[in-house]
Amino acid sequence: MKEITAIIRTNRIQKTRRALEEAGFPSMTAQEVLGRGRQRGLQHEFCHELPEPEYAADDDTVNQVGFIPKRMLTLVVDDADVDQVVALLIGANQTGNVGDGKIFVSAMSGAVRVRTGERGVHALV
Q: Where do the domains of the chain lie, and which CATH numbers do they carry?
């Protein structure tokens, strides 16, 4: 099993969710996060076709360090599904512009479905 974590643009979450669901991967966790990459949080200076990042008006810390709102998706999949899921994530999120995101794949030693006690890949679906 592998854990796949994807950091994506906020405006791509629904497209990503639909692509994963249609391919048979409906289970995921999504979180609102703040992040920055090589663009140092200055996304609007590198790509003029994207809107400037939206920050909370009262959050001076965010403005000072230049974080951009993103969504972080986490999925746990069977090893055989990793390439397909990564391809789906790229397909739904790649614009060719700075800030498209990152995908991380990590080893997962186990999973347990709380309701039934099922373990391993049987706990994933």
A: 2-123 (3.30.70.120)
